[in-house]
Write a structure and sequence with these properties.
The protein has about 325 residues and is α+β, with helices and mostly antiparallel strands. The protein is built from 12 helices and 10 strands.
Length: about 325
Amino acid sequence: MKPELHQTLKLIAQDGRNVGTRLSAALGITRQAASGRLKKLVGRGYVEATGATRDRIYSLKPLQEATAAYAIPGPSEDIVWRELCAPLLADLPMNVRDIWHYGITEMVNNAIDHSGSPTMRVGMIRNALHTTGWIADDGEGIFMKIQRALNLYDPRESIIELAKGKFTTDPAHHTGEGIFFSSKMFDAYDIRSGNLFFMHDDGELDILTERNKGGHGTLVMMRIDNASQKTSKAVFDQFSSPDEYTFDKTIVPVRLAVHEGEKLVSRSQAKRITLRFERFRHVILDFAGVSEIGQAFADEIFRVFQNAHPTIQMAPTNMTAAVNDMVNRARNKDARA
């Protein structure tokens, strides 16, 4: 795909309004030339346009779709992939197909083995820019199930356990790596369950929101650019030790531990953050979106826990000056003693 076409499609995906003006500025072309490009995309069937000229709104047009419902137990994940998904992706680059193969089979297998649902639904929709896939079930719900398995106080705490990786309710048959790696491979990865909605988008802060209405079951949605340069191997390598091929590094988005109206100040909050850290050699604590933390919170993680687990390398990142001061204070406490 030509860079100009890709940039045009991305502008439309970001916001379908005022596209002509934005495209003109982005490509350094006249407004008339930008309108001509958009007209050609509509003619090729890549884009839809609605509304009058000044108020015209553009959107990416679905080019291919595939959906199916399955009983559980029923077809295995490789059959779902081969019969439903692979044909829709056949002409995409191999690296993108590999990512889809991993994500679809892992999420379908999760629904089969963990959801407790009698059925699941799988779908994919492709446009000229990207493809979106989804898997839905009517089971207990992933956040409630993790809350029950770990005896957590609130289902929102389940999100951070998924973000860490290496969690499964069936360790005899699963590694707990599927959601972690899928969320890193795709451009966007969302989970909706109950009244909770977790959204991971590359380059953006992870978001956890609550919806007024929530039902049973789990919906997982994944999206990636059809021309993405990502590879599944690069993602695996990023979180593995060289030459050992073991999943020993995790990134923890600390802001997901912040409940509305609260700040990270207590030792109990810190203990929830460090739950299962001992399964990793390297832990990156991402403080993006966290403006400050309390002394007890920092001390519990960076002195008490670190002293009890000296072989774990903990690396805080994206810290404000206030967070950095608290972290340094906790780490230097032993040195001053």
